[in-house]
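Chapter review: from sequence to fold.
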Amino acid sequence: MSFLIEVLLGGLLAGVMYSMVAIGFVLIYKASGVFNFAQGSMVLFAALTYVGIVERNVRPALALAVTLAIMLALAVAIERGVLRRLVNRSAMTLFMATLGLSFIIEGLAQTLWGAQVHGLDLGIDDKPLDLLGVGISQFDLFASGIAAALVLTLGVLFNHTRLGLSLRAVADDPLAALALGLDIKTLWSAVWAVAGFVSLVAGLLWGARVGVQFSLSLVVLKALPVLIIGGFSSIAGSIVGGLLVGSFEKLAEVYVGPQLGGGIENWSAYVLALLFLLIRPTGLFGDAVVERV
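The token string follows.
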């Protein structure tokens, strides 16, 4: 039983890391209906930028502030320079635009900081912590605390502030929001800036976990099952989806993997996501699409 609890807790804590990336998708999709495939590249760019600045003998606190400013500027530039010019285009056009942006951002990151692998030390030991006979990673606990604080902050932002209520209004009906006098362009810039901040947090945590390398951008693929299960328009759904994906992966690898030759952790979450697409396409917390026929 203690081993089962340890596996389950490890999966839940790993799922929080997936949720960190998924939140960036949800923010932009919720406000503008754009599926930002470049979110993974933004996570990579944030981690590389921070490490690149720190390696030039800049204090971590100052490097963090500079990286945050760069990510905010990058996010706003993407919104104003590309996506704002594609308003009212098809969803496929917007998706292809963000797909192209992902390669541009990766190329820019390689040009600025090189292609070598970097280590990232946040000062948190990844040693197991014994709690009532169950080993829990100290780093996972730290990452979970950061994620919980981020989710709480975003929840307050979206539900209890004027900015959040305005963003929800824009997401529900952009034309009605425009008729009420809301500045949609400013709101979209704001939500992209928040997504840039989320990319920085996710980039630092993932970079500290697996190293800062170009495969870090593929973390976007881990977020897809989370979004499908939790729903593309729900911050809470991204957390619940991440917890389900993380725990399902670990339990499947430990208890089902040996019967299938092992190595199922990398794809088992997509089986769960496929089942959700067949049974509940909008996810657990996604908004149902109502169309007039």
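Two observations follow directly from the output. The chain has a mean pLDDT of 82. Residues 140 and 166 are 34 Å apart (CA to CA).
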